[in-house]
Amino acid sequence: MNKLNRLHMSMLAVLLGSVALVGCKKKEEPAPLPPVASEPAPMPQTPAPMPATASVSSVDLGNAVGADMRVTAPMTTFSPKDTIHAAVATATSDPMASVSGKLGAKWTHVDSNQTVNEESKDVTFTGDGVTDFQISKPSGWPTGKYKVEISLDGNVVQTREFEVR
């Protein structure tokens, strides 16, 4: 019976040790609740609206323009005595806003790589509009290939090629 007693005592010691370990374990505190807001959270800020911009939507060449400054009959071939018009159609990103800018036209005789004329205009763009550039030469244009480069605020945005025969 001595063996049985020792076994019971050993089991009792293990059981008491386990209970003691569990009893000594630190009790965990529950996580604190977030504080109650006394003021409403700030509203997210909306980004400032982008300023309106101007763009060139098209360039038409012709030898005549109407009262609206648009080319009456677009063409790419001219006679030496023609006045050549470039009607530059523009638009703004906000039709109600005014945008200041500079439109330019550089006319080049491609065959001789010579600048025929260069002109710029300060423009206040509002919605859709048309600006007319023109060149003429009473003694007549030399035959050959030409181009006009249209720039907006110093950046070339459209190029049109044409011919004088």
TrEMBL record:
Location of region: Disordered: 30-55
Gene3D superfamilies registered for this protein in UniProt: 2.60.40.1930
Bias (Pro residues): 31-50
The name this protein goes by in its record: Lipoprotein
Species whose genome carries this gene: Thermomonas fusca
